[in-house]
Amino acid sequence: MRFTLRQLEFFIALAQTQQISKAASRCNISQSSMTVAMRNLEEVVNNQLFVRHAKGITLTAAGERFLQHARKIVNDSQRAIDDLLYQPQLVVGAVTVGIAKTLSAYLLPAIITEVEQHFPLMTITYVEADPASLVASLHQGEIDFCLLLTSNITHGDELMVETFIRSPRRLWLAQGHPLMSKPTICLADIQEIPFLLLDADEYPDVIREHWLTRGGQPNVALTTTSFEAVRSLVAKGRGVTILSDLVYRPWSLEGLRVMRRTLEDSLTYMDVGAVCLKNKSLSPAAESVLDYLRVMVSRQGEDA
Q: pTM of the entire structure?
């Protein structure tokens, strides 16, 4: 008995939504069909992939590992089909794309090769900087458009902002952390726990403002620009953090587990999209690149 590609797609949907009902709706099947498919998948792999609780499901450690393989299998299958249908764009030109630091670290490596292969006759340059600097460069004509965390910027009247994906932010904590035994976790539960604050793309202002609107503030133990420092310290039980699914990885560099849980009273999103100037039309080359990035980024959001 073997699993099918469709079962893997169901499992990925379940991991993303964390609810049987939502996953079934996304896959256009009944809840009972989703439940049966997941039960059969667990029998095939001889492992428990998730546990049920009052609010939905949580992946087990085995489920997190299997999710990485499932995504690769599904993505490779789609790429095999895309490769047979692939027709490179023969647009000629030069395009400069501004990109936020967070996206440069986690999004660009996943898409840059496919973008270059799709536009073999085009020169595409990426400029990494903070959002304010990128918007300034946009006004000065130094870049064609920006890929930014659109939830973290001020949407001025002169800007055209398009959001491609919404990546939910969740609580990251170590495997075995006392909070993991709680059926639900709220913001108040982590207020006294050391908080590891990532300093990138205006995030400190965003999270502090969000916390203040709920009558509290984070107990910041460390502020750092390093994603891996945050991940490693969380995995070692030195604190917790709140970051988006787009930048989540289940293992630290030391091979320790990083768990994630939804905060029941504090769901926020990291929106990712493009920013252009309203009063300036994009060149045909830039328009073509933006159209393709829209598809690529959306695909990455589905995989997160």
A: 0.72
